[in-house]
Amino acid sequence: LAVTGLASLGAMLAACQPKVVEKVVKETVVVExxxxxxVKETVVVExxxxxxxxxxKVVEKVVxKQVGLKNVPRERTLVYYxxxxxxxxxxxxICNPYATVGWTxxxxxxxxxxxxxxxxxxxxxxxxxxxxxxxxxDKLDELTIKIRKGVEWSDxxxxxxxxxxxxxNMCLKWAPQLRNSAYIxxxxxxxxxxxxxxxxxxxxxxCPRFYFETLTFKFDTGQYIIPEHIFKDIEDPTTFNFxxxxxxxxxxxxxYRVTYFTNMQKFLDRRDxxxxxxxxxxxLPEVERVLVIPMVDDTKAAxxxxxxxxxxxxxxRPATMKTILEQNPLIISHTGKKxxxxxxxxxxxxxxxxxxxxxxxxxxxxxxxxxxxxxDKAIEIAYDGAGSKQPLFLPSYKSLKPFMDNIxxxxxxxxxxxxxxxxxxxxxxxxxxTKDKEGFxxxxxxxxVMEMGGWQVWADIGPVVxxxxxxxxxxxxxxxxxxxxxxxxxxxxNGFWYGHGGSVGPDPWLSMxxxxxxxxxxxxxxxxxxxxxxxxxxxxxxxxxxxxxxxGHPKIMELWHKAIEIWLRxxxxxxxxxxxxxxxxxxxxxxxxxxxxxxxxxxxPWHLTFPxxxxxLKAVKK
Length: 622
Known about the structure:
The chain is an alpha+beta fold. It is built from 19 helices and 30 strands. Strands 13-14-15-5-16 form a 5-stranded mixed beta sheet, with no helix packed on it. The chain has a 4-stranded antiparallel beta sheet with strand order 8-9-11-10. Strands 7-6-12 form a 3-stranded mixed beta sheet.
């Protein structure tokens, strides 16, 4: 199949120089097509995928002019395929991380921003960066941060404590419009730079997790620090684009800076004057340019990965990854060529309900749904076995394992992953439900209907689970309506798929807060923070107690056990699967990718730890 409307990446790379004449040779390779069968008893999906492979050979390139940008050869360029809609972006030229519309670090700009500190959940390692250290007072209501000497912005202005002071005070002033600003407003009393290298934060109450949860870069979380010497003259930080190449904007402390940005491509070019090299803290990365191109869809991503035209992209589904790995021997995954073709992300998936309203206000019915799901079979059918189930709401990371070990007794008492249709029948009948002539549960003439909406990422497993629930007597269906997100937010969907963006370590407190009663909105009012609408004051009080303790405090484990017994007894959402990042990584040009043999970080270029991956990549061609 020829793919129209998508220029080959060879042509894109050529255009990046930016005027190139090319001669192109194309051939079409046909592989097997995805097939879905619906069988009377269950759903079977044959794991065959068609990936149109448009092989492109750039025969000749003639650079006519450079238009102010240096030429970077392919072997020194990392090509990242991500974001946008239909192969284009709508946010060209927005480089201000606090612009309320259009900016995201995920589309490559994570390479152009640095954190005070980094944390790797895989290595369970802290990496102080722009800051050298931090400390709390005995009451845990003051935090002192020491800034690393020698850090500079790309315009040569020193990075100091005043930048941290200005950033956090800006968040206080503009709350709740800016990233994390509502949380900062709730907890921070004052931020003051004591000198160029010391900043003190005074809290309204003990806040021992502020540095880790708010200021440390990990996965997608962490506070962006902006240059005070530029933003102090900006009247409205929410509308400032921060894009003017003639002025050297955006400025950054990172080893890469945005130098070219259109709706079709973005350059992040290496800064050879990076502060970390000057002071002997780090070596200069070997990647000279990060080229980011908006993604069309999984099929196009697979096509380009097979060609070797891209080096990384958004995570793909198992069948697609299998095809890529089979057809391009130079592509690897986090687990090499074997299942599950990736690593566990920080986003465990559960099935949620509106727990404020009948019928799922009743914990027995939530448990009845849980017992009706055969997670192992669903993973086998949807993912060809390339996945895993999870019993709570935490990712299976090393630093969180002691907490999961601590509740083994509770998981025996409340087996949240057990498949047991007999218990489903028992619980439904106990609560007065009977099956109608079509075999679906109901009471008082009203059938239980589950509209199991979700995003495209659940298109493989969603229908499989819906069919299992239908077999168990629930009138369930899976769809992806355009208003799904709005309806979930307002509590108008039962059986929705949802992920937990919470704890990555060293303890589970942040994920626990996702079920705090304070986030519950009435039905009909938006409530993204707690879409399950579960309200348990005893659980919430225990979460609050943990939040006042520093990480590692011996009392946390006891409080955790008590809280999770409540959670499992009530089962506010049904634990389902771990989410995996299955990212094709190209070794044709670059080695040193994070893998299970060398798990120094999670491998997502869209996360804030991306610069620390770029530090480790080595060029194949020297």
